[in-house]
Amino acid sequence: MSDHAQRFIAHLESLHERDRGALAVLRRSLGFAPGAYPPAYPHVERFVAAERHARDASRLALYVVAGFYALHPRQGGKSLAASLGELMRQRDGAGIEQRFIALLGADAENLAVYLRQVVSLLAVGDLPLDYAALLEDLHIWLDPWVDPERRDVVRQRWARDFYRGLAASAGEKAPIPAND
Predict the structure, then answer these.
(1) Exposed (0-12), middle (13-18) or buried (19+): which is 13, by Cβ within 10 Å?
(2) Smallest Cα–Cα separation from 40: which of 14, 10, 18, 60?
(3) How far apart are CA 128 and CA 43, in angstroms?
(4) Which of 101, 141, 167, 180 has the most neighbouring CB atoms within 10 Å?
(5) Taking Cα atoms as reference points, which of 162, 166, 35 lies closest to residue 102?
(6) How far is CA 111 from the centre of its chain?
(7) How far apart are CA 161 and CA 78, in angstroms?
(8) Mapping DSSP to helix (H, G, I), strand (E, B) and coil, where does residue 129 land?
(9) What is the pLDDT of residues 10-33, one digit of tens each?
(10) Is 101 exposed, middle or buried (0-12, 13-18, 19+ CB in 10 A)?
(11) Nearest-CA neighbor of 87 among 119, 130, 132?
(12) pTM of the model as a whole
């Protein structure tokens, strides 16, 4: 993960430890378009590069991740998709898979809505996710100028992580299918 992403997540973790009001502001920002809630600016804008414009994908990704971290401040080493697969395995819920499939099909405009549902599920299940990795993935997904194949690479990686998390039991590697 990039140093910038790690610093941003460390900033969010410090807010969690010392400024619960800031987390409330960031949670509230989820009700607005990313980057459109002025009370959240003091907590995010310092991480936005000077040359970035208001609709820049990296800026939007910072706001989305900040809001989700405030909603579920449980940073961990698993990707969002792997944690969601684990949650589905624990609960045996087909609705989780349907939400995940809808998330994979989301366009940049609706992505935050689908992600909010998924992060809320992870919060209820108390499962961590790697916010730095999510930040980098969203930077790609939210960029309208990125090569669509790069966006598909993110979707495919999320799908692999989800189904491996679903298939593997705790501490066990998912089986590798043999070619017939």
Answers:
(1) middle
(2) 60
(3) 22
(4) 141
(5) 162
(6) 10
(7) 9
(8) strand
(9) 999 999 999 999 999 999 999 999
(10) exposed
(11) 119
(12) 0.90
